[in-house]
Input
Amino acid sequence: MSSLAIALENARITYEQHVAECRQCRADAAPCAVAKHFWRLYNNARRQQLRAPGPQARPAPGEQSEG
Output
């Protein structure tokens, strides 16, 4: 697994774990500031992987893949 793929997977897992465990995210049914930061980190990692040559990145959590 490439370092970009590892960074993307780590960012996705971090975001998903935070949203599942954060009291504010669960209570408000909306992401808190920390969750938004983790989401930005995930998006940055995904963009970086899409720009790199090689296999395509996984779709974002909640997105449907094409095909």
